[in-house]
Design a protein that fits this description.
This protein has nine helices and 15 strands. By secondary structure, the protein is of the alpha/beta class. It starts with 8 loop residues before the first helix and ends with a strand. A six-stranded antiparallel sheet has the order 5-4-7-2-3-6. Strands 11-10-9-8-12-15 form a six-stranded parallel sheet, with helices on both faces. The protein is 20% helix and 26% strand.
Length: 330
């Protein structure tokens, strides 16, 4: 449980007004909407490979309490939080694969808040992992980011390790693609940054990558200097193309909202790879623009939950000629 002495009083008072057990959920596209425009059958979508495998047996299968070991601000509203792995538990997140993922939860005033996060540290980092957390303002069904960013070192919160991520039915292995296009909106850079650092940190992996990051202002750029440093160290394998919707006068990157022209510029040195993949992470509207959002399939029985699937590629990536199986929404 998160130690109460580190909470901000305003959070404790405001969260009581929220509806119980209404943890934030991302909206997805309704199946009927896509069927009208894409002529997609429900049976085809139901046959789509699963997004996640099973939790590795070496990892806890339930939430555990983890201590905050370090924290630092990286933008006016975002922090990198380092959580310590427990003594006697897993030594790293290597068993979670690339990119790894965790779910954080906490109940405050009878309101269950939970949210999935992607560590930005390589999964083999020993004894701890780093999360990029934005302190979103308190709102109905949300506010966990604000709670986490107000933690003090030594306090704890509950975290669960998620199963390995699948890319159209397969986990990532070195050199399974010749080129990866990674497109991030805001904090969506987190899983993509881990992917980049893990690929570059694997000696036998020669995959080339192009990263497009989209933010509002220069102060909001997350992990931009880290990506630039990696690109400078690996110029033949990594390029970073940043875009700002509200750039300063001396800005030399992309301007406005991401377009097909921006993606073409980011891919100018990618050549014509035989095996390619585009990974996209951001808000609902960002996904819809870039590749089309995920699709919610109706539950088959009363005891089942609706299933979210990747669905057909749409948006900018379809205009660039990417096939459905060459795109993964994170």
């Amino acid at each position: 449980m998160l130690c109460q002495r580190g909470w901000r009083g305003a959070f404790r008072m405001g969260v009581r007004a929220l509806r119980p057990h209404c943890a934030g959920r991302r909206a997805v596209v309704d199946l009927a909407t896509v069927k009208l425009s894409e002529q997609v059958s429900e049976s085809d979508l139901a046959a789509e490979p699963k997004t996640y495998g099973k939790v590795d047996p070496s990892l806890p299968d339930d939430f555990i309490s983890l201590e905050l070991g370090d924290e630092r601000w990286v933008s006016p509203d975002s922090k990198i939080l380092t959580f310590l792995l427990p003594t006697g538990g897993p030594l790293s997140l290597a068993a979670t694969g690339i990119p790894s993922a965790v779910k954080v939860r906490h109940t405050v005033a009878d309101v269950l808040l939970d949210k999935s996060y992607s560590p930005i540290s390589p999964p083999w980092k020993p004894h701890s992992f780093d999360l990029l957390v934005k302190s979103y303002p308190l709102r109905e069904g949300g506010g966990l980011g604000q709670l986490l960013c107000s933690m003090n070192i030594g306090e704890t919160t509950e975290i669960n390790f998620k199963p390995q991520r699948y890319f159209w039915g397969k986990t990532y292995t070195a050199n399974c693609w010749d080129h990866i296009l990674l497109i991030a909106g805001g904090t969506g850079v987190a899983p993509l940054f881990q992917m980049v650092s893990a690929v570059l940190g694997t000696p036998e992996d020669r995959t080339r990558m192009s990263v497009v990051t989209c933010n509002r202002t220069a102060n909001n750029i997350l992990l931009g200097s880290e990506l630039d440093a990696l690109a400078a160290k690996h110029p033949e394998r990594l390029e970073h193309y940043p875009i700002l919707s509200q750039p300063p006068p001396d800005w030399i990157g992309g301007v406005g909202h991401v377009t097909v022209q921006d993606l073409r510029r980011a891919l100018r040195n990618a050549g014509t790879p035989q095996r390619r993949m585009a990974l996209v992470c951001g808000t609902d509207g960002f996904l819809e623009t870039v590749c089309g959002d995920k699709i919610r399939l109706p539950a088959q029985t009363a005891s089942e939950s609706p299933r979210k699937v990747q669905g057909p590629v749409r948006g900018l990536l379809r205009d660039l000629g990417y096939a459905t199986e060459e795109v993964t929404r994170m």
